[in-house]
Amino acid sequence: xxxxxxxxxxxxRWVFLFLVIVSVFAYVAxxxxxxxxxPEVRNIYRFIDTLPIGSVVFLPLDYDPGSMxxxxxxxxxxxxxxxxxELKVLITALSQNGxxxxxxxxxxxxxxxxxxRTYHGITYPAREIVNGVDYVFLGYKPYPAMVILGxxxxxRLPFPLDYYGTPLDSLPMMRGLFNYDxxxxxxxxxxxNATDFWISYxxxxxxxxxxxxxxGVSTAQYYPYYxxxxxxxxxxxxxxAAQYEELADNxxxxxxxxxVQLSAHLVIIAFVIMGNIGFFATxxxxxxxxxxGRR
Length: 295
What we know:
Number of strands: 8
Number of helices: 10
Low-confidence stretches: none
Strand content: 5-15%
Helix content: 40-55%
Structural class: alpha/beta
Strand order of the largest sheet: 5-2-1-6-7-8
Radius of gyration: 24 Å
């Protein structure tokens, strides 16, 4: 039995075990993966970075814990960038399992703002982020198409109260903030088909600037909207989140996950190559043995 025969007989459980070992090693190891930033991600960063102080960025967080690993880093990087730039953030969560997760992320972000940090050589002092002044979390309502259309008339129609039960009219940030005409842009971070509703019933009906952050497997289907100009930016999966962290000079979970993703992909590619070499070598050997048998 030669080496190619042995390759064909490897139990796939050893392959999975090796992949797990490599992934764990890559997770704890301290090395950096170069990040190449795509224009569609850079567009979102530049748009937010050039907004005047006090502008309102609308952030529909339409994902649940199943896609949290890919999309949560986008939320952290964008909200922190907005608050460091003294922008205001309006948030909804139209996925039924998303509001609690969004609330937890907001609490962590509010705590992180209490520490001065330096991005791109600029030191931002600590800030006290106040609910109702620096951000408003509207929460969840079912039937996303109706909710999106309703907010186009007035945020108070589907959300008379915020997530914490406070009337919107009593929140300082909501003074003069009625519908999509009063926001600078919307960035939909989604692991569901809510993105389709935001494109069709939100941007298509009301024409506000819209960008999206979606899971890696669903990214490709939204590029026609980017090409047509309906979207001014796209962040795709963990890589898109890592690119945004690179632009914001705010390394988080996404950039760290690039080590694991790169290592796992290299292992998978290596096994694919080895498997194909073993397969074709074995076929060639059997063909040769068959010809010699006829002689």
